[in-house]
Amino acid sequence: MQLQEQIELAWTNRELLKEVDTQEAIREVVSQLDKGVLRVAEPAGDGWKVNEWIKKAVILYFPIQQMQTIEVGPFEFHDKIALKKDYQKLGVRVVPHAIARYGSYLSKGVIMMPSYVNIGAYVDEGTMVDTWATVGSCAQVGKHVHLSGGVGLGGVLEPVQAAPVIIEDNAFIGSRCIIVEGVRIGKEAVLGANVVLTASSKIIDVTGSKPVEYKSYVPPRSVVIPGTIPKKFAAGEYQVPCALIIGTRKESTDKKTSLNDALRENGVSV
User: Fold this and answer.
1) Any idea what the CATH number is for the domain that residue 114 is in?
2) CA pair distance 143, 88, nearest whole angstrom
3) Cβ atoms 204, 169 nearer than 8 A
């Protein structure tokens, strides 16, 4: 509570950023984010709670940090935020050229292929962050998730009340999927390649006799592919992108099933 009070005061009065006590409070919050003690968002009942004050601390961290040169072998970086360290101690496998920034959390058993995890993000146990996947600032990724090659999870710092992207346990996110603006993917959901989800994207369940529409949320165990729907404009009617829920994962399907297997079960050519 003391940390939260200090952060809230500094948020309303930026002159406090000059004080050592305030700077120490901000750095302590980022340190606890780095260790997974604090989270920008956390499960709460059937939903998620956004801890706005922690996002504020991340935003306030930037102005109190100084630019520095970071040398890693022959490579050089120039930034305000250090890189994560002690991967062996953390039990995390990191393949060159994977990068995670200090202030992000990687749990035991995480595998990072050449990829990127930004400050404030939380990546839980056993998750694979595949080649050229990006986990944006404050994104929350559950246990045993597979983020396939080129997946982009959007970051969010401001507005502070905005929810981050959330990928729940055992979800499989196909290659080149883009998930931004606080979209939440339910447990064990499977997204086919190239699904793009924003806060305004229509997510349509077409498995019943009538379509059921969702926004910003993919229900657990859903199998999702890219689709289009007609939309009228002044210049005529055109097809615009949407996402289609075409089925659910079967109980017989192992949680680590391949994307192809999950799609074949629902009659989609792969």
Assistant:
1) 2.160.10.10
2) 19
3) no
* CA distances from residue 209 to 69, 162, 247, 256 in whole angstroms, order as listed: 60, 34, 13, 30
- Contact indicator for 228, 240 with CB cutoff of 8 Å: yes
In a domain, 106, yes or no: yes
| Counted domains in the chain | 1
Rg (CA), the chain: 20
Domain enclosing residue 209, as ranges? 2-251
Inside any domain, residue 263: no
266 lies in a domain? no
The verdict on pTM exceeding 0.70 is yes
CA–CA distance, 56 with 149 (Å, rounded to integer): 31
Question: Residue written as tokens 């994307």?
Answer: 259
Distance CA 74, CA 119 (A): 24
Residue 51 lies in a domain: yes
pLDDT tens by residue, the chain, 270 residues = 899 999 999 999 999 999 999 999 999 999 999 999 999 999 998 899 999 999 999 999 999 999 999 998 898 999 999 999 999 999 999 999 999 999 999 999 999 999 999 999 999 999 999 999 999 999 999 999 999 999 999 998 878 778 899 999 999 999 999 999 999 999 999 999 999 999 999 999 999 999 999 999 999 999 999 999 999 999 999 999 999 999 998 776 666 566 667 777 776 654
Q: Is 14 left (phi over 0), alpha (psi -120 to 50) or beta?
A: alpha
Round to whole Å and give the CA distance between 99 and 116. 5
